[in-house]
Each structure stands twice: as C-alpha cells, then as structure tokens.
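Input record, target 12 of the design panel.
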C-alpha cells in the first residue's frame, strides 16, 4: 500500500485553496490535504499532527512576507515548505527560498503536474538536507569525541613525558652525586695515603727537630748571656724549631682521615691555625693580610680538620686568583638571625631558623672576581677553569659538601670594585 502524502495548506483565499485541493486530490498515489486559513491555526495544526509538506501563502491577513515563513519554519524545521505568492511578490518568494524554503510557486501560473513535481522534489530535497544535516551532526559529534580522546591521549602522553623527564633529571642528579661520592672516596683514599706518608715523614723530621731543640737549649744554658746577639739568635732558632714542630703536628692532624669528630672550637683559633699552614704562600706572594675579628665570639661545634681544609682551600683560591701583591681581608662576626633570607626562615628546607645565633666568616680578596656567567656553576662537581693548571673542579664542591655536613652555608659573590667575598656561616 502506497503511503499518502500529508499536505498542510495555509491559504486565506478559500477559492484558491479549493482549486489547489481539487488539483492535488486527483494525483495518482493520493494526497491528504488539510487547509487552514491563517498562520495561527496552521501552527496549531502542525503542533498536533505530522505532515509531509506545507504549502504556505506569504501574504496573509495577520502575517506578511518572510515573517510568515519564519514562524512556520521555526516550529517545524524538518518539514519542507513551498511558498505561494502572487506575480508582484516573486522577490519575497525568492528571499524565502534563500532562507530555507524548498521552492516557490506563483498563484495562477502552475498546473497540477508541475505542482505535484514541485511537492515531491521538495520533500526529497528536504529529506536529503536532513540526512546531510544528521550526517554532519554525527560527524561533528564523532570529531568532537575523537578530539576529546586525542586530548586525553595527549595529556597522558605529556604526563608520561613529564614523568620521564623527572626520572631522567633524578637519574642525572643521582649520577652526579655518585660521581661526587666516587671523587670524594678517591680524595679520602688519597688523603689517607698522604696521612701515612706524613706520619712517616713526621717521624723522620721530628727526631732531628728534637735534637736541634736540645742543642739550642744546651747552648742557651752554657753560652754567656752577655752577648745579646748570640742570645737573640738562639731564641730565634728555638722559635723556628718549635714552629716547624707545630707545622709537622698540624700537617699530621690535617691529613688524617677519620669520621666526623665534632667539638667546640674557637673561631679565631681555627682561622689562625689555618693561616699558619699557608704563611709561606702569603709571604711568597707578598699578600697584604688584614684581620677584623669581633670580640667575644661564641664557639662553634665543627670537625677541626675538615673546617681548616675549607679555610685553606678558600685562601689558596684567593691567592691563586690575585697573584703577587694582593690583599685578603678576613672578618669574623656573630649575630642572631632575625630576618628571612640567606638560608634563614621557617621552612623545613632552610639551613637556619629565625632566632639562631650564627658565626660568620668572610674572606674578601681584590682579585679579578668570578665571571657572572659561571658564578652559579663553581660548586658543581668537576667544573673548573684551571684545566691547564691541573684543576679537577672538586675543591669547591667538596667544600660545599663539608659545609652541608656541618649544617652550615657557603656563598660566593663578586665585589663591585673587583674580587670575591666568600661567606661561611655556622650555627653557634
């Protein structure tokens, strides 16, 4: 059974509506035609019953031109519309087609067969449009769905990349730490060897020194004290022997490798003992050494040998940088930390806490300074500017490690007028 085409005709001219109905009802296959005289009744009909197509007169008593088409189209956007107009209103009909109507006919100029074809073509075109619209909508949905999937995949991929990058960075840090640990192990073994050699050398040197000291004491007892020059010479000899003995003992203490042995040490005694080791270098290069020690400095709990090693390394770096006739200023002061900054604060990662009393050592030289481009790298393991002089790049990295072992802090900064200030901070 062939399904009949359901047509809604909205036409205020009753005679025109009857003529069109008579024409269409004779078409083979059959058409069911409903007629409504105005848009309001037509809208009510559309809301109540399904139709296949609407034949719409654009000129109605309560609606004119495109307004009429828009009202019907908005209510039933999937129903095809053929607009009907007079000869004088053909321009409006064309505008309606451009706005979505399937076709238009001029009243009185269309026979039955042409009208039937127009209706069938309009229904088919609308069906095709709806299929295309649905296909486009489905495609847009699938594209959106796939886009969301790709976004999720991309986000997961980015997370994997970030995690891999973090893992690589952690591996790099672990590798650098391993290299540093290996280097420190080599350094420790080297220092242990130096310690054994120093012990043997000290044994061989201390005995002659003891004999020399005994000889000096013998001469002091038995030579006439009336000769002032001889007396002063013997005193100089005695002091020189004692100083040599002190240096040998200090070298033994410094070169010995042991576990951290923390003890209360006076800041001034620590720095003066370190200076004793490099007095020869200071004199050789004619270094002007200035000291500014605050009074009543509190003791600091440190490993004496390791901290003296830190002082020696900083002082030798300054001497190497300055060359002859340089100037080194050593300051020691103490204060209570009452401001956030320079490693002090309330975070767990901060070296010091507000309210801590600290002892601060400052080593200032008037050398060329450190290029700003490498200032942040000088503590990195194996970073050195002294490859041509046999530098390994471990000195400052080991110093920083020793300071961290003591829960202290070391910073380097350039002076405006040239040179470097090395600042070492210890908790008192």
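The sequence produced for target 12 reads:
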């Amino acid at each position: 059974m062939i399904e009949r085409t359901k047509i809604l005709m909205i036409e205020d001219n009753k005679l025109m509506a009857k003529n069109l109905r008579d024409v269409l009802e004779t078409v083979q296959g059959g058409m069911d035609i409903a007629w409504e005289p105005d848009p309001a009744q037509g809208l009510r009909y559309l809301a109540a019953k399904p139709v296949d197509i609407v034949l719409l007169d654009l000129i109605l008593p309560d609606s004119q031109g495109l307004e009429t088409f828009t009202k019907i189209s908005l209510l039933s956007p999937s129903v095809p519309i053929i607009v009907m107009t007079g000869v004088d209103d053909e321009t409006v009909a064309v505008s309606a087609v451009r706005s979505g109507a399937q076709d238009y006919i001029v009243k009185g100029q269309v026979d039955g067969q042409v009208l039937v074809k127009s209706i069938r073509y309009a229904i088919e075109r609308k069906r095709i449009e709806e299929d295309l619209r649905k296909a486009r909508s489905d495609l847009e949905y699938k594209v959106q769905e796939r886009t969301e999937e790709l976004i999720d995949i991309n986000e997961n991929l980015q997370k994997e990349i970030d995690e891999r990058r973090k893992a690589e960075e952690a591996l790099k840090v672990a590798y650098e730490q391993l290299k540093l640990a290996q280097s420190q192990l080599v350094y420790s073994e080297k220092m242990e060897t130096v310690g054994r050699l120093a012990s043997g050398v000290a044994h061989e040197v201390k005995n002659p020194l003891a004999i020399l000291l005994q000889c000096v004491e013998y001469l002091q007892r038995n030579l006439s004290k009336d000769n002032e020059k001889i007396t002063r010479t013997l005193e100089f000899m005695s002091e020189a022997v004692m100083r040599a003995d002190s240096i040998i003992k200090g070298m033994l203490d410094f070169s010995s490798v042991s576990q951290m042995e923390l003890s209360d040490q006076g800041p001034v005694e620590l720095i003066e003992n370190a200076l004793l080791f490099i007095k020869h270098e200071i004199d050789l290069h004619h270094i002007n050494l200035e000291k500014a020690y605050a009074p009543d400095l509190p003791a600091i709990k440190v490993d004496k040998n390791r901290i003296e090693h830190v002082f020696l390394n900083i002082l030798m770096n300054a001497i190497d940088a300055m060359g002859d006739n340089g100037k080194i200023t050593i300051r020691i002061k103490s204060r209570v930390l009452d401001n956030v900054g320079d490693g002090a604060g309330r975070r767990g990662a901060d070296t010091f806490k507000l309210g801590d009393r600290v002892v601060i050592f400052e080593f200032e030289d008037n050398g060329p300074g450190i290029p700003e481009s490498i200032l942040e790298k000088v503590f990195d393991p194996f970073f050195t500017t002294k490859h041509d002089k046999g530098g390994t790049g471990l000195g400052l990295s080991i110093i920083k490690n020793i300071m961290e072992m003591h829960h202290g802090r070391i910073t380097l900064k350039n002076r405006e007028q040239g040179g470097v200030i090395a600042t070492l901070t210890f908790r008192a």
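The domain at 259-427 is CATH 3.30.565.10 (Heat Shock Protein 90).
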